[in-house]
Amino acid sequence: MKIRTHLMNQMAAEAAGDEVLHHNLTSSGARFQALREGGVAGFPDFQEARKQGRAIKERCLADLPRLLPMLERSVRAAGGQVHWARDAAEAKAIIVGLARDNGVKRIVKGKSMMSEEVGLNQALEAAGMEVHESDLGEYIVQIAGESPSHILAPAIHKNRGEIAQLFVDKLGVDYTDDPEELTAIARRVLREKFLGADMGITGGNFAIASTGTLALFENEGNIRMSTTLPRIHVAMIGLEKVVETYQDFDVLRKLLTISATGQKLSTYCSLITGPRQDGEIEGPEQFHLILLNNRRTTILADRFLRQTLYCLRCGACLNVCPVYQVMGGHAYGWVYSGPIGSLLNSQLLPPGQGGQSPNACTMCGACAEVCPVKIEHPKVMLHLRWLMAEDPAWPTADRPMEKMGLSLYGWLATKPAGFRTASALARLLQPIAAPGGKARLVPPMVARWSRKRTLPRLRRPFSHRWRELRRRLDKQGGKP
Amino acid sequence: MSTSARQAILDVVGRATAGEHPAPAGPAGPSEVKWLHGPEAWDTARASLEALGDRLLPLASREELGKMLADLAAEHQVTSAVRWDHPLMAKLDIDGLLTRAGVTCAPLTGPEDLRGVAAEAQLGITGVDALVATTGTIAMRCGRGMERAVSLLPEVHLALVERGRLVERIADLAGVLAELRDGPNGLPSAMTMVTGHSRTADIELVLVSGVHGPKYVVVAALDFDLV
User: Fold this and answer.
1) Which residue of B has its CA nearest to A155?
2) If exposure means fewest CB atoms within 10 Å of the residue's CB, which of A107, A214, A429, B105 is most exposed?
3) How far away is chain B from the Cα of A274, in angstroms, using its nearest Cα?
């Protein structure tokens, strides 16, 4: 997927002014939150399960050197094939190669964020294959030529009128903005694609190393179609999706579906162990599992940042995030959005290319409170900010003037007399230096900081104004 | 590419976790399945399915099953059905019951049926490995005669559940899977857990039924002795 993280400020500003988007995001956030809360209420051991879930992820990630080969052996024993990809380019080459070698013409896909990460659709289309997203939201986004804006509800940024017009334009159907009729149209169109597809491509929610089982969750049935009808099934997962046993899986799957939509189990859970067996007349003849690294081991190597890899992709942190609610998913500029998106984009892309989204965090902590595996997003954001400022691997690191300005501020903040004097001076100079809140004459050390910000009018501290204010209130009988 | 990528990834994973030796996962708990019996279990399952917008129909005899099939066929304008090729179907003579209701019914005979018979049938009839009472979840392993397409392609999915096939919680399915894993055939290539009918809320979060999979899930509770 094209990286547009450098455009975050501009895209966020546009998003903030988009009333349809604002309505969709706030109502979806509230809806998903209510669903999740209902699910949690019916789950008495939820807090205990979160601790267990985190412990399972900690253990399995630390044990990857043992679990990855175990998974490989188990998948092979079940008749499947395992492919290792260091980066997106290798993953694309493997999948395009498999499609080409098997004479694949038509591909149906289940929702996979990793496929967006890799840019898989473009690679397959460039190789001459027909690629159809089959999750309803993904399908809408695909025919619109856009990208998903929410992990669970990819087309949440579009309203029914837009989708209705899209279907008229792209599918040649009569206009209807009834979600039920629109869904029926998509069902009809995609059913044909499923029946005629040679290859199904999916992600995977978990891979159980001890048995070689891939677990897939969904509510629509498109993943079942993609893994049942085509003659080849390719599943691509990140290294971090591996757990050791069914018992590990059993704890995490509860946390995932409750946190995502409040469901004890999604409508469909498919546990796939290898291709069809002898004598069976359906199911893929070939099962390929792609294990993708794509910088995940860099995250793994940092014991603090490693928690980013615990993420189950439930989407709960997006739904409670005040920043996501205002700027939407696209403004993050790459595949992942919301609090976890800030963490993932910053670390899955090379240093400096993930954009400024960790700096957009308000540190409210709502994300960490809902995270099913207790990721502490705000702390990781702070750590990323520190990397941005200090780690020479980041192009943002070496900014002496900015650093000097902030150090000066830090020093002043601990010296009451100096701080008061400096504030008085700033109040005095503000009308000249920054008329109307827009910085004009500012020292270079705050120039970068003030470029994107509108400064409120500086006033004397409330404590200084209170005596005078109190006198006036008394005189006016308590009325301001 | 493959060998070198594999080795390169394992090397870097090894370096990233050097010195960490987590204890392997603890042993699995008891894998013996606790099957539920009695009317309370059926009632719980019925309430769970109804909460999902689906149905459980208690049946006290084969005759009641026949009447239920006729009603279901009339309700959904079913003219053709597809079913598992399973001993349960023969025992109940499902084909006979459906013929009387004016519905043709056949098992899948080959891959071509997936795009033919299965794709055109309005009703798909399966058995289950287990029905989870507290969630209404239907667990089905796949295999010859137990095709996944039967519970996926038609608009109505009818699952026949015998007595003693109920478990209490989803966690109890671990035992069902462990029995399969340790059995002569090992794990099936797919185990599908179905909790209600296919649904989506991708357009303005309006809940719509039957986007790709069945629009209706019906559980026939066979609360009688099969001969």
Assistant:
1) B202
2) A429
3) 5
